[in-house]
Inverse folding.
């Protein structure tokens, strides 16, 4: 092993440190502050204005800082991997972190998973260019950092490895796999050391029964429905960004306007505010009437499009996860009432919805399946999860829907 390979190996092993630290700061500190703010101002008219204040601060950061802090940054990572001369600077990282923090704390309907991955990868990007890595080693470093961030958030190193290979590397070479695995497990070990009790998802306390013919028919119908929800999610986001882009108002007022609209929705339905982590981590205890569940699902999609489309900073991973879970849970509840002979446990169908949304919108069918299998230990549910992943993946591809992380789908210009 030559000197450059040794340096690359050491850097990748150490990627677990920034990944775990960023996860701890954002998911266990910033997100908790956000929940406290949302709970404090719930049923209070001030709730309408809190996201607008956060949006105004973000708008000023965009105006006087950098436009790279706008929206979600994983598309920039994908374009960065093509050249080690293009990426995030220290200034970009600072403003991205600040913009995300203010968007989330003020109740913006965004996620923190994407920013954690982006910032972890941004740090590795700067290191790679500073050490003057060759393009191939630089690309390995970027892909490994992506896996490290993913693994720290979900505590799922195998899914993190596959996610990086599907989204960033797109080449399943032995060297790519080796280094990505190293970064994933490094991140897992450090995160376990920092917080042994940390968990992103809920505990699955139900027994998943084997499915019969009727249940498979119901599942296949559901995969078409989740494909429509995915299409609605991404198109609502694109339309929102186009509307805000055309508004003839100052740059820094756009996120404030988006925040005001989100706050207005949140005043009536507080569940759509913030990252939704409180719902995701306690989803097995989430019980609301079907009508309210339907309203929350579609308002969450709208609120996310307003937060991101107006120029707010944050990720789309958490909103997609919540959208998938809510969709499956809703259809599962309806099935129990109207078609009990065909129905599937709503919690399990929620996991199928999660898999379908991620596979269809991020174009990561294998990583989506592995994520659920790795976290929830469902070896007898592999076939339903495969159907849940690949049918939406195929349908949305046939509908010409690009990956939600596609660099050309969104831009950083205002």
């Amino acid at each position: 092993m030559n000197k450059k390979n040794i340096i690359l190996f050491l850097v990748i092993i150490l990627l677990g440190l920034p990944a775990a630290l960023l996860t701890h700061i954002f998911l266990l500190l910033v997100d908790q502050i956000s929940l406290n703010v949302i709970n404090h101002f719930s049923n209070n008219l001030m709730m309408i204005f809190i996201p607008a204040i956060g949006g105004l601060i973000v708008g000023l950061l965009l105006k006087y800082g950098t436009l790279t802090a706008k929206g979600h940054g994983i598309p920039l990572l994908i374009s960065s991997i093509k050249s080690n001369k293009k990426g995030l600077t220290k200034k970009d990282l600072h403003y991205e972190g600040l913009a995300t923090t203010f968007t989330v704390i003020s109740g913006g309907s965004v996620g923190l998973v994407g920013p954690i991955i982006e910032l972890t990868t941004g740090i590795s990007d700067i290191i790679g260019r500073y050490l003057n890595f060759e393009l191939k080693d630089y690309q390995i470093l970027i892909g490994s950092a992506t896996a490290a961030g993913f693994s720290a958030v979900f505590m799922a190193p195998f899914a993190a490895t596959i996610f990086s290979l599907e989204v960033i590397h797109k080449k399943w070479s032995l060297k790519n796999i080796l280094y990505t695995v190293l970064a994933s497990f490094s991140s897992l070990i450090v995160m376990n050391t920092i917080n042994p009790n940390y968990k992103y998802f809920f505990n699955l306390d139900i027994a998943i029964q084997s499915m019969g013919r009727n249940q498979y028919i119901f599942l296949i119908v559901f995969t078409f429905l989740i494909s429509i929800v995915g299409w609605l999610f991404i198109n609502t986001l694109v339309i929102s960004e186009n509307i805000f882009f055309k508004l003839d108002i100052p740059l820094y007022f756009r996120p404030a306007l988006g925040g005001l609209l989100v706050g207005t929705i949140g005043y009536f339905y507080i569940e759509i505010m913030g990252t939704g982590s409180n719902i995701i981590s306690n989803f097995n205890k989430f019980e609301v009437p079907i009508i309210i569940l339907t309203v929350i699902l579609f308002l969450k999609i709208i609120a996310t499009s307003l937060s991101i489309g107006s120029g707010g900073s944050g990720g789309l991973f958490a909103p997609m996860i919540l959208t998938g879970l809510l969709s499956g849970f809703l259809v599962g509840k309806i099935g129990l009432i109207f078609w009990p002979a065909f129905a599937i446990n709503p919690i399990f169908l929620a996991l199928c919805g999660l898999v379908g949304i991620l596979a269809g919108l991020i174009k990561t069918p294998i990583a989506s399946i592995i994520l659920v299998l790795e976290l929830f230990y469902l070896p007898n549910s592999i076939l339903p999860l495969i159907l849940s992943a690949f049918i939406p993946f195929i349908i949305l591809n046939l509908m010409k829907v690009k990956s939600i992380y596609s660099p050309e789908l969104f831009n950083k210009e205002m």
In short: Residues 3-194 form a domain with the Clc chloride channel fold (CATH 1.10.3080.10). The CA atoms of residues 231 and 399 lie 9 Å apart. The two ends are 47 Å apart (CA to CA). The chain has a mean pLDDT of 89.
